[in-house]
Design goal:
Elements: E1 8-13, E2 16-20, H1 28-39, E3 44-50, E4 55-60, H2 67-79, H3 106-131, H4 141-171, H5 179-196
Antiparallel strand pairs: 1-2, 2-4, 3-4
Helix pairs in contact: 1-2, 4-5
């Protein structure tokens, strides 16, 4: 049986497909070849190759490319792969994954968020490139107001989330002791409501 025919689709959703790949692919050198080849495919912005599980996860931009194009690109790459001889110790030492889950803690969380932001900007760049007719960005008053309103809403939601436990356990039980915090809260709500009122 051809090695390409051993690739099986295990999961498929909009902009995401996951394949089960044969054991011969679960080698760091092969993983690098696959990742390099797939990144040349327009619309593909993330490849995760889990060697120990034998999984290949591909994320792409719907509208720029589709599942059929990604599958064709994968099978084309597979036909030209240079698969080295099997090494028994490849995955036995526990280092079999190209992309490992970030370690727990603040460092791992920051790395994960940085990766998400990086992929978001990559996806935006792909979409802008595919559009081909992107006009120069001009900051109009409407766009500026929308951006400020959006950032204000995010800030308010973040502050509520940050202080919610204190509001329930301390501020509400001893309102006078936390009168300045309540004043700041009411003033912030006033500013938020005032910004939502339509201008004449």
């Amino acid at each position: 049986m051809s090695i390409a025919k051993q690739i099986v689709v295990r999961y498929r959703a909009e902009g995401h497909v996951r394949f089960a790949v044969p054991q011969a692919f679960n080698h760091p050198q092969v993983a690098r070849q696959l990742e390099h080849g797939l990144k040349q495919t327009e619309g593909v912005y993330r490849i995760d190759h889990y060697l120990r599980q034998g999984k290949l996860s591909i994320r792409y931009i719907e509208g720029v490319t589709d599942f059929k194009a990604v599958a064709r690109a994968l099978f084309k790459i597979v036909t030209g792969l240079e698969i080295p001889a099997a090494e028994p110790s490849c995955c036995a030492g526990g280092g079999g994954m190209v992309h490992q889950e970030p370690s727990p803690g603040a460092g791992g969380w920051l790395k994960a968020k940085y990766q998400e932001i990086k992929e978001t900007f990559t996806a935006i760049g792909i979409v802008a490139h595919a559009a081909g007719k992107a006009k120069p960005f001009v900051l109009t008053p409407e766009k500026e107001k929308f951006a400020l309103d959006f950032l204000t809403d995010i800030l308010v939601l973040y502050l509520i989330k940050l202080h919610w436990h204190m509001i329930l356990t301390e501020w509400m039980r001893r309102p006078w002791a936390y009168r300045y915090e309540w004043m700041a809260t009411f003033y912030l709500i006033f500013l938020l409501v005032r910004s939502k009122k339509p201008k004449d």
